[in-house]
Amino acid sequence: MPDKTVAVNRRAHYQYAVEETLEAGIVLTGTEIKSIRAGRVNLAEAYARIDHGEAWLIGAHIAPYEQGNRNNHEPTRVRKLLLHRDQIAELLGRTQAKGFTLVPLKLYIRGGLAKLELGIATGKQAHDKRRVIAERDARRELDRTTKERIKL
């Protein structure tokens, strides 16, 4: 059974240069997983942090479940990420020493469990962002001209 992608952080690839990716599980409540399955997730402002030997997802917005009761979850609560101890140690070393940051790239469901794709990334400078925009515009213009030639 293929993975069902629920949310993609499109801003991450624009603002960060992603060096490496890894998969992490998430500790969720019952109403959170139901809301995720409904696709009501936003990762745009989210980031991950290592604190006291544990990984945490901060700023991810999972909308309250519509059929939930008064025990519904808080939309932007801090959620624990499930990683192996050696992965956490490596991430801690890389984020502290080399200036990398942990950025959530994609949230998907695999085998009934919610998984988060984390990217180890560095921030892009303004000139890098301009270059990406120029390349995208050039590619779009090239596609447009080739499509016009095919029509003729």
Written description of the protein model:
- It is a single chain.
- With 152 residues, the chain is an alpha+beta fold.
- It has a single domain (4-123), classed as Small protein B (Small Protein B, Chain: A, Beta Barrel).
- 35% of the residues lie in helices and 36% in strands.
- The chain contains 4 helices and 9 strands.
- The strands form 2 sheets. Strands 1-8-9-2-7-5-4 form a 7-stranded antiparallel β-sheet.
- Strand 8 and strand 9 (113-123) form a beta hairpin.
- The longest helix is centred in the C-terminal third of the chain and has 26 residues, at 126-151.
Q: Would you spell out the secondary-structure blueprint of this structure?
A:
Layout: E1 4-8, H1 10-15, E2 16-26, H2 30-37, E3 41-42, E4 47-51, E5 54-58, E6 61-62, E7 79-82, H3 85-97, E8 101-110, E9 113-123, H4 126-151
